[in-house]
């Protein structure tokens, strides 16, 4: 099994996601530590209906006393930068080598796998970027046991689990009265709901682009539409497997997840479907925008061509007339040779004819509606 | 479970639908009251085969005496603007916290859920706008019990249930002889049938656009087509899950819905399929229109270019001839220097040549059919 | 159940199909009689292996004596313009109110429904128009009982059942030896086979458009392609549900249809699949035509631009030269001021230079192949 | 059941396939003999593991003695032009009337049908045309009994069964050791494999078009692409139902086909899937070509426009300058009136200015890369 | 069964893949040796948990002593150029004739087939080309028995199995402790993982094209996009059937593959799905690029047209004015005949008017933003 840490995010815009992969054919279960990955920070939260403690620990082994107690132990590992710690983590939680590989060699496709007394869930969390467009995307792996939950995040800096932590310590809602399966649900729910703020930004960007594409289509607009389509494709790739994952969790009958939590997961599944619905709608809208863009560019071309045609159509005949009376036929040799030149009202008459022609053409073009259009061009 | 009240309608055109969502990770079952939502108005209709009463009530608790009687009690809540009343409503009807959240935190995706002795149905009602294009879209939630039906609407101003109310009080048809399940059917049927007038307007708009797109394609047309596509996408998102919802109602064997009503629901399901059929057809037509638009714009460009080419092709050679005889070669230095200038018929001959060339070119273009086309341009 | 008579045909070209619908929320089973619908004409055909009679009757009640005899009774109602007669028809045949509604409130989507001892089939018949393009589309409803078949057509003027009637009276084939189920099969088969002549016309129109689109693309062509696509969409909407209907008839085990007739229906199903195949193929071809049209229009634009460019490229330099020798520099002030004007061969040399330039440019354009193309433009 | 002989091939390019159909509503099982169809030629091949005979026979009845012997009898009927012989054939082989109709009223959609002790297979054979592009398409019907195989071909001139005949008479491979089911397999396999040479030609044509479309896009190219798409659509319509047919043959458990032959049919099925794979790939490539064509045409337009712009941009300013010095302001009236005309170096200076402007503009356009492009135009 | 060695790779860019096929209708199991195929080189690797040997052998018969021992024997045949050796190979491994045909007559579609005590897997290996774009594609066939694995490669020069060989000899991981099924897994895993480096190159090419298509769209870009689409189509055709193949291996219950290896294959299946995901994403991106290209070309056209229009709009009126004062009306005949020519400030005034007009037009165009755009044209 080759270890690979590659391209799922290749279209992501986060430079920190350096994608790489190992030589095909290496031993399955080998884990690859990215040299630039941040060192892991481990936080243990242990709670029961009556009390909750949180402490940061240095070595995975410090968790062991907590794991088999009745209280729920949540071991949250943030960062993948130390192979030794990750290997020891695997031993403490007795992970199958393939599981450890899936957890560490990000990105993996979201999925759920059942290993006897453990349920391994690979999920993907998105968070809107604060400063620019786009979103951060990060793998979160769950190992769910009877009395514990191990979560492994790629990145220590940010996650969307803070409200859950707060609910544990403030003992709000029913979280503390339930087991580790409810905790896993609460975190997955936070991940799925985290898609909504990201999507909302895309809704706004698409609305902005709608205006821009019709009134001011520039190559920059094109680039933006393409970007939005690209990022929505990435969101879609992140949410679809999570829907399937939730579907599997609801359907399967394994003992780790209780029926009560399944009711909650069903609700979470509905939200995932809603996210998919919105992603697909936005994708269709963005695709439609591309068509509109092409049409709008053609429209502008029409306007430009109309302007050129109007200018040419008016001046070319006039210039021709001026050219005619610029000819040097000898008026003295014959009365038929350009007698107009010697007329008393020749020049004014000539100018008048020109003015009439110009006015006539202008009227025709105005009647066709070309003049207004070209003036509307930049609106 | 995050509470969210968000983007399902983001492409709707109703400004009252302010989409927002809560912090991912908040407690499931939390309800969010939109500050701008209208305060709830509660109407209780209680009827039996022999009599029917209707009264507006202030507190949910006033319903309690009616709920367990044999007569059908329809509690219709319109408006979501008071958290306290909504919470008490939940207690009166013993709603699961997730159900209350689904009812209040609109928009939710249409679905049906079975909670032992209650059937919860989330539906979406559309009504054509009176003044402009587009439609109002509103969530209607049903909680169906053995002898009662709770409906919760977003908006007190309008619904499409008036004919049903009238049938109850005029004791028309079989509605009063049947239970709450038939009432629920009658309302859902009214919702599904409410799609038809909306769709009819889109049928007309598409027909108008067909004409406009071929005869007068402007950027405004483009915007209209895009708008229609967008709104049809929204209709599609509203009707598809309702079809599935009806399918579930027909298939599932729960005790709340009787077999006789199931026959009626099957008919209602057929109508939902018919709505989908029409939505998809209109979507295909609208997509086709976009292609036609692009082609029509290109066509007009051709016409413009033809006009420019005809004008240029005719005057450029003539102007050249005029230019030639405007040269100042000294006719006195040589008999070969522009002897035409001194010919007796020089000028008339020159004009005649020009006229012949112009006539010839005009004939060629007429023969190619360019002249008629450009005259047809604005039709 | 709202009664609606609406938009299924909104894209049909028949003005007689005035689409309308009732207020959503009206009583299910209400029938709506279109004021312009033709009054019903009822024909009763009763046949057994040995004899066949046909008579036109005025009231539905006249059928009653025939219905329960062993001979097959075919009651053919043509026209939906009399509510009283339709209601009495419902009583004679003991139709469920929903069935009567489906039969009368056209258009309904084709479907089959099983009502204990009756099989209700809603089908859609198409017939090519005689004078112009397009087709007539009409709903035919079947109510099939053990010894009788009720058919209801929208329109008395035309149907495609004449050959079946003739087979009954001439006692040709096995029709008279079989029951009402075989009669229903024979009529459905006639309906399905009726799609082939309609499709053939589309095949021809598409072939015509193929030529037109490449050699003479005009906005009219565009309109025609769009029209064909639209009508094929409508055909598709008519045939798909009939395929499903036939599939249901073959699969279901109800007692009204015998196994022998099921073999025939399987053949009819194959034909429906063949119709779908052809409709989809034509739709793909028509879509392809739209792309070809766009390309062809661009091609013509290229040709027009080439012509303009050739003309401009040839005459603009020549005109420039003429302009140069039209300058009025004073040759007397300096020997360097336009000495060409006083040369003996000045003018001929100038013309010669112009001719050489023109010839050279023509050669270049001919070499590029631009000249042939522009001459091929109208072919 | 209407007899129809219609449009499946309407997009075929073979004029001999005159499509027609009968009046909808005629008696099922009626066969329609096309007046132009070639008269049938019947060849009987009878073989056992030890010997093989072949003889041409005149009447179907001559087959009877061979049909029930243990040896395999292959009756190959080529041509559909004699109704009497076809009817007698139906009697000899005891065909169901619908089967005879399917065999004779070509084109029928490929399918397999099980009639107790006969298996009826309708297949479609394609052969590349020798002289021009495209392919011959012909229906081959199989009636497979325990000891005999009846095949009916549309056309006596060509088929792709020659190698099979040769294997029978040279007793090569295992064909003679097996029954009629193996013979049917061998012929179907020959039909499926016959798609490969046809497809190969399309592969080549698409490759040729790829070059043409980028370097030399003309309306002719467009027509070719459309043609290829059209013909691939036809191939697809021929192969898809044959895949389903093979799938049915493998899955069904009927006694006529032995398990050993089923292994061979599975291989044949794999080839059909491979054909579908290639057809779909070619279709995608051809669709892509249409896009490329459109882009390439736009590209050429750009090149043409650049050329026009370069020419105009260079000569228009020069012509203007020439025009200025062609003005007739009276130099004697004022020292400010065109003093340049009387300068000693006036004319050379003027020409020099013109040259500088031209050189400058040429440099700018060269720098923009427009000059190279327009020279690359015809490559 | 026709022997064919044909078009699966027709769109590949490797000239060595000369596609050809045999006459349809030839004997199934016939193998076709391509005259240019490299002669086979056979390497036998035999290993047990304790030791591993590797030797190159000349004749297939040399394998026989190893095949039935408990140790795992991997016979790796590279090259298909010798019919005799291939036939003897078939005898040594007791291959069904159809299997030998599938192995030798490349390309075959990837698939898995179960022959009692052998599992035959046809896979397709891809490797990035070192020097240019594109990839090498090669069929690898596996015949998996209880204690042996036969692999047949098309090409001796390269494969991606080297790391597996190295793991065997260095006794790394668990490969030597497991049977031939694990070896087959390891090789298939290496094949699937071999898609990632190929895909990564496409990710990079698409990113490069994104830049190019917006800033510098040339016909070359078009060709590149088309090429990428084409090659991705080919990758897709290679990976999809391998996903199905892995799915079959996981699901089927045959005895050759142990449950432990099935866990590993499930992981390998996940990677295949990930590959498909990436291929589809890249295909969508490449399709989007084509649209962007078309829009970008239109954009550039707009820029070119703007430039032409600006130049024409400025100089055409000026030239007209110059033309007017180049007319030869006789100023002596009338005071109204071009009195400007005799004004003292006539010429300067004329030039000034021209300058004002030019400045005004420039200002208008600058205001419309046309001037900046045309300067941005080549960026």
Describe how the helices and strands are arranged.
5 copies of one chain form a homopentamer.
Chain A: E1 4-5, E2 20-21, E3 41-47, E4 52-57, H1 64-67, E5 72-78, H2 83-92, H3 97-104, E6 111-115, E7 118-128, E8 135-144, E9 148-153, H4 162-169, H5 180-193, H6 195-215, H7 219-251, H8 259-324, H9 346-368, H10 370-376
Parallel strand pairs in A: 5-9
Antiparallel strand pairs in A: 1-2, 3-4, 3-5, 6-7, 7-8, 8-9
Helix pairs in contact in A: 5-8, 6-7, 6-8, 7-8, 8-9, 8-10
Organism (chains A, B, C, D, E): Fischerella muscicola CCMEE 5323
Protein name (chains A, B, C, D, E): Magnesium transport protein CorA
Region (Disordered) (chains A, B, C, D, E): 1-20
Describe the structure concisely for a colleague.
5 copies of one chain form a homopentamer. Chain A is of the alpha+beta class and about 375 residues long. Chain A has 10 helices and 9 strands.
Care to describe what's here?
The structure is a homopentamer of 379-residue chains. By secondary structure, chain A is α+β, with helices and mostly antiparallel strands. Among the domains of chain A are: 1-178, CorA soluble domain-like (Beta Polymerase, domain 2); 302-367, Methane Monooxygenase Hydroxylase, Chain G, domain 1. The first copy, chain A, has helices spanning 64-67, 83-92, 97-104, 162-169, 180-193, 195-215, 219-251, 259-324, 346-368, 370-376; strands at residues 4-5, 20-21, 41-47, 52-57, 72-78, 111-115, 118-128, 135-144, 148-153. In chain A, strands 4-3-5-9-8-7-6 form a seven-stranded mixed sheet, with helices on both faces. A two-stranded antiparallel ribbon of chain A has the order 1-2. The model of chain A is unreliable at 1-20 and 374-379 (pLDDT under 50). Chains B and C meet through helix 4, helix 5, helix 6 and helix 8 of B and helix 7, helix 8 and helix 9 of C. Chains A, B, C, D, E: It is found in: Cell membrane; Membrane. Chains A, B, C, D, E: Belongs to the CorA metal ion transporter (MIT) (TC 1.A.35) family.
